[in-house]
Amino acid sequence: MAGQSGVEIGDARGCGRRSLQLHVMETPCRNQCALDAARAFCTGCGRTTDEIVHWRSIGNDARAAVMARVKDWVPLRGP
After folding, report:
1. Rounded to two decimals, what is the model's pTM?
2. In the chain, is it the N or the C terminus that has fewer CB atoms within a 10 Å radius of its CB?
3. In tens digits, what is the pLDDT along the chain, a chain of 79 residues?
4. Which DSSP category does 59 fall into?
């Protein structure tokens, strides 16, 4: 599983200085992205299109539930 990163600029220790902080968000993406014929889920990682679109904004519990559901996902092959 690959980690997906985001960059956040924040206040370093409250002293007014700006710092660059890298936050890594776990994702089930396997870089084999393709939607099924009905465009309902990714054949590479098993997430639904809604889960993919809203991945960064869904809560930690929802992400953990998706990660548990697709942990043994075998990417689908074919047209």
Report:
1. 0.67
2. C
3. 444 444 445 555 555 666 676 667 899 999 999 999 999 999 999 999 999 999 999 999 999 999 999 999 999 875 5
4. -
Both tokens assigned to 30: 């396997």
Spatial separation of the C-alpha atoms in residues 58 and 66, rounded to whole Å: 10
| Integer Cα distance of 40 and 57 in angstroms | 19
Give CA angle at 40 (69, 61), nearest 5°. 35
- DSSP β-bridge partners for residue 7: 22
How far is it, in rounded angstroms, from Cα 41 to Cα 35?
6
3-state SS class at 23? strand
